[in-house]
Amino acid sequence: xxxxxxxxxxRLADEGLVVTLAGWVQRTRKMGGxxxxxLRDRYGITQLVFNMEQDAALCEQANHLGREFVxxxxxxxxxxxxxxxxxxxxxxxxxxxxxxxxxxxxxxxxTIEEDTxxxxxxxxxxxxxxxxxxxxxxxxxxxxxxxFEVRRYLDEQSFLEVExxxxxxxxxxxxxxxVVPSRMNPGQFYALPQSPQTLKQLLMVSGFDxxxxxxxxxxxxxxxxxxxxxxxxIDCEMSFVEQEDILNLFEGLIKHLFKTLRGIEMKEPLRRxxxxxAMKYYGSDKPxxxxxxxFVELMDVMKGHGFSVFDNAxxxxxxxxxxxxxxxxxxxxxxxxxxxxxxIGAKGMVYARVEADGHVKSSVDKxxxxxxxxxxxxxxxxxxxxxxxxxxxxxxxxxRKQLCELRLEMGNQLGLRxxxxxxxxxxxxxxxxxxSEEDQRFYAMHHPFTSPNPEDIPLxxxxxxxxxxxxxxxxxxxxxxxxxxxxxxxxxxxxxxxxLLGFTEERAQQxxxxxxxxxxxxxxxxGGLAFGLDRLVSIFAGLDSIRDCIAFPKNNSGxxxxxxxxxxxxxxxxxxxxxxxxxx
Amino acid sequence: xxxxxxxxxxRLADEGLVVTLAGWVQRTRKMGGxxxxxLRDRYGITQLVFNMEQDAALCEQANHLGREFVxxxxxxxxxxxxxxxxxxxxxxxxxxxxxxxxxxxxxxxxTIEEDTxxxxxxxxxxxxxxxxxxxxxxxxxxxxxxxFEVRRYLDEQSFLEVExxxxxxxxxxxxxxxVVPSRMNPGQFYALPQSPQTLKQLLMVSGFDxxxxxxxxxxxxxxxxxxxxxxxxIDCEMSFVEQEDILNLFEGLIKHLFKTLRGIEMKEPLRRxxxxxAMKYYGSDKPxxxxxxxFVELMDVMKGHGFSVFDNAxxxxxxxxxxxxxxxxxxxxxxxxxxxxxxIGAKGMVYARVEADGHVKSSVDKxxxxxxxxxxxxxxxxxxxxxxxxxxxxxxxxxRKQLCELRLEMGNQLGLRxxxxxxxxxxxxxxxxxxSEEDQRFYAMHHPFTSPNPEDIPLxxxxxxxxxxxxxxxxxxxxxxxxxxxxxxxxxxxxxxxxLLGFTEERAQQxxxxxxxxxxxxxxxxGGLAFGLDRLVSIFAGLDSIRDCIAFPKNNSGxxxxxxxxxxxxxxxxxxxxxxxxxx
Lengths: 584, 584
Description:
The structure is a homodimer.
Chain A: E1 18-31, E2 34-41, E3 44-51, H1 56-63, E4 70-79, E5 92-103, H2 120-125, H3 127-130, H4 134-156, E6 160-161, E7 179-181, E8 189-191, H5 197-205, E9 210-218, E10 230-239, H6 243-262, E11 271-274, H7 275-282, E12 296-297, H8 299-302, H9 308-311, E13 315-321, H10 329-340, E14 350-354, E15 360-362, H11 370-380, E16 387-393, H12 396-413, E17 424-428, E18 433-436, E19 441-444, H13 459-462, E20 471-476, E21 479-486, H14 491-500, H15 505-519, E22 526-532, H16 533-541, H17 571-576, E23 579-581
Parallel strand pairs in A: 3-5, 6-9, 11-17
Antiparallel strand pairs in A: 1-2, 1-4, 2-3, 4-5, 7-8, 9-10, 10-22, 12-13, 13-16, 14-15, 14-16, 17-20, 18-19, 20-21, 21-22
Helix pairs in contact in A: 4-6, 4-16, 7-12, 14-15
């Protein structure tokens, strides 16, 4: 061993000990006849002291240390005269008696500090140096701990982690697959799994009862911000359960993680909201409930008073921002610009302030009497000092989504989206089907194996669009961190689903026959869910991007700029694979 | 929840309880007016009782249950009159009052029993049914537990599990890569990692200090028995350590696994053997030490007595099988045939029995006096009743390997390779280089980053072939379950290695430049190893093949016969990938 202790663990109680440390030179400072070196390893920073008077040669050696040199030192622990309360080792320093340079280092292209001067591209190219920064390393430490605690919790609940294959078959539905040519089976390809959905359902048919896996999944999609071609899921499935059992068990997991990783005890049951209510009150199936500001619908109050924008609207609704009546005209204009941006697409915004005396002053005063405005105020339960913001449109769902964006923006502006606050929510009762105007047919909102809510089975034929699914999402702070469903285990019900989804018998057999056949040998009732580990870690760490909790992420073109992957193959490799590249 | 208890947990103490169980029908038996059903789930089997007299309709319903039907029953726990001591639930049975068929089942194509009548191909095609068999499920339960205990141990030792990417760059050395065409980067390919070697070394450069990962790795090789195109490694790396530190820490891991998974306490340090000794005494770098029978070299004793086979040999050596002098002529002829098989390639075998009076009777008596034969007996420390088997040849290494096969065969025949006995061994001091007669150059025995033993650095130029590596393998029962090395962190030494391996500076830069450049920014001394999880589980479970501990394995052509993967792509998919299949 090149050390007897680490750079993070020496304390005042160790005074007088002779220890050997090894690590990286964070910085050196010369002061009078002394040289101070901050030595860094994964566990912390320890101050080293070299004294010109005591050992000139050794001190001179220390003066020549560059940033990020790897060194080994032996010395005596001493109490510091000027202590550093910000550092766990800040009460001591090491009086060095021996110094060995284990490796020199080129000057890194950016500073290895909590906040670096390196831009994104440079940091990604030299990711191995970026990972030296405590800020980045902490995220990966949290990721390790989260994976470990997930396993501990699920193991205690009798789940078995089963590894499913990475080289599988291409699935016709869903996103695009990454494929892998098979040399031994020329002209044939494996696919990388988008999720182990089929395999975990097979494990239920196998009687594994409780399965989980922390597993890499792959999607060849055009990357948007915060999407990675490979991502990690906590994938789970259980047999002989109903929706309530799954919600309870995984609510327990989330609470366990908050307790062990963030020290937060959540004693109350997690909040639940139907998809209908989420859309109605927040315009989103993943509402951020760190703050209120639910939508209030105003069709009854505001329609028919001669303001043509509202009079022609299919939806009028607004939010009430507490204590924001002091918003200036300029701020309100900016908000109007915000909702009119093409990504949001509102036509305009109406606002109203509740003044100190309770009087309502709005941007549409000429169309509305104070009496109507007071009715509006009452609808919001608004109080003096509050600001009311209203949107309208001819498509209720679209307008709600615009209002959702406005609500989130107000949450940001008013500081209501604190990264250290966590609002967890189960969204339940998702619709089973989604109607496609374009194709004039129903699609499965999740996948064709999702079970309808048993109460709604009679509606399958009569009111297909109204049928609720036994499907659920876990939302934290407005981010969907997981979701799943109870699966159909009854083959007659499954046949009916396929029919409703417009599958011919042949097509259903071709695409899902394999799983359907397995089900014929005795499938138990089952269901499950999957959490996105990357997203879960990001939220626990308060990160803006999942990239910061991935050791070696890819950029928006799917490239690993550090490894310089993907790259070209040797011609011989292509030939062995019976492949030819044909660039357009 | 469809059940209140599982089929494995009811005991006599539960008598009188009303419980609900769910599971699969293992078998039904009619006896008089009673029907008995064995109900199975992952946790065990519980006997259900239906009584014609008490409830004829219910009993009739039970009589129509088929094998593998999925049912739910409610009933009262009662003490059995005829107990089954082989079953944890064997003291009780359930008097059923309610029966619900949750799902019917087709008759499975093979029996779902400890020993099935299904052949390999059928079992693989219906793997989801094969996995219902307790014998198979237990292997996967062990695999889960092993992975969990590995993580627990390494977490306690401050290791961080870091996920490295699956879509990486193609590496020019080593086995063949599986590749993944990139749609977004036309004509370019990712590779699937053969191991995260480069990335884990980068994590050491990043100061992660202690890394591990249980990770899928991929090799596109022609599959031999017990090779899978995707396999799982326990991959580890540590900084600021020497070989001794790594051996100690991972010896601790192996002992932890034996203790927690098999209840075996290994108190003594694990045995260590140099590669030289392993080759000399066992003709293998992975000797099975469950039994002795080390090689004895006989050049001094047996050469020069007129037996031309031995007189012209470069190596004469043998083994002594205790108490095997009763081998018949037929058995000995079969052993001779065994070593003469082309896979082994010996020219013949000499044998000698030590008779009750100490007299040695050999197959080459006409060339040797009893005096010489007694010297031979002494060399083996042989006793009356022992059997001596001798091989010779003109290439010492080749002959040792033949003798190794003979030794293992004798171990099998004499029942010395008990699957419940475990002999762990570190093989150390591997040669750094391997000489290729064909290419007339040295190759790295492990990889070009393996550090030489510091003592042997002076020999690098003068006696290259004799230089020992700081490399080590863990061998259990003759199977290499893991291995690794201390890596070179000194760039001058690395340059020297490349030169000795015949790399030009350009080629070294092209192939390894990326890692070499990273090392310039301050690489700590580091080393590591990787265990094969599949092999480790197989050994702990006493399996003959790693397939039996993999949920969904592939066959020797790399096919998943259950999923029917790989398969053909749609033409559109190929076009999107800028690829064309060109079959020969």
